[in-house]
Amino acid sequence: MKGRITLTMIKPHAIEDGNLGNILAKIQMAGFKISALKMLRLRLNQAQEFYKIHEGRDFYKPLTEFMSNGPIVAAILEKDNAVEDFRKLIGATDPSTAQEGTIRKLFGLNTRENAVHGSDSDENARIEADFFFSLLERY
Ligand code: ADP
Ligand code: MG
Hints:
Layout: E1 5-10, H1 12-16, H2 20-29, E2 33-40, H3 44-50, H4 60-67, E3 72-78, H5 82-90, H6 103-107, E4 116-118, H7 122-132
Antiparallel strand pairs: 1-3, 1-4, 2-3
Adenosine-5'-diphosphate (ADP) binds next to loops.
């Protein structure tokens, strides 16, 4: 059975650009229920932990620095087929190749500053949700 949750982060530049509300509106209009939500600033070592599957890639260091450079908003999103449907809603990693109307096309600046994170599998969605939220913080 497909999992019902995915984990998103609204990335620092999107918060700075004033697009938090616009992005949350797109998410809710697409039928996702927000079942946990918080604003926080990751420490560098926490960003490194979150993205450790990418350790060794050339984009790892600038990515983890960028992600710890300002506040993010993390959220657990709930919907049938959440992981796949959310990846469709956000679009390709590189905003310039993302489909029209997707969150990354609308609010992403470049391949690194691409507005939002979305889990890539049900297993990673669970791991990432546990990274940010205790059971007491989920509704
Ligand atoms: P996605 O977020 O679409 O799942 P990845 O998991 O491959 O993409 O990469 C994680 C994040 O690392 C991306 O969202 C983006 O911020 C950054 N990133 C990935 N590839 C590149 C790249 N070639 N250049 C710069 N940043 C990148
Ligand atoms: Mg990914």
